[in-house]
Amino acid sequence: MPLPVEESIFSSKLVRLGEHHCPTDASAAVTEPTVIFPLASGRIVHDGVAAFELPTTVTLQNTGEVVTREGSHHAWMTADSALLAEIIGGDAGRPFPTDRIPLDATLSVRQRALFHFARRFGAADPLTVEGESIAIIEQIAARVRAP
What is the mean pLDDT of residues 12-25? Predict the structure, then answer.
């Protein structure tokens, strides 16, 4: 049985970016608030509620939630919990009031460009990676707060 592969793309005191590739079922408790950008469709059980994770959505996970994925390929990002709570407006452990938002083309392109840049230049230009990561989280926060 193949093991999940977790690839760290960038890590600093403020933000972390990575990709997760898991061809089989995997279940885990979320250890920090995380923004998930699905790169392929898959089935997810998020705190007991089954749904499909699609590349047209952003999945938002709070600390302590239990997530089971039936095969998965996604990019993820997280930020310092105090910073994330300040941007989103929630508490540090549970900043996300919803578990998913729609992913439009501008946010998708922005996320993919950030990850591409972080792979190539993240070590040489961490401030750009941190700044764009925070800007993406701010864009997500605006959508979370929108009616």
Answer: 89
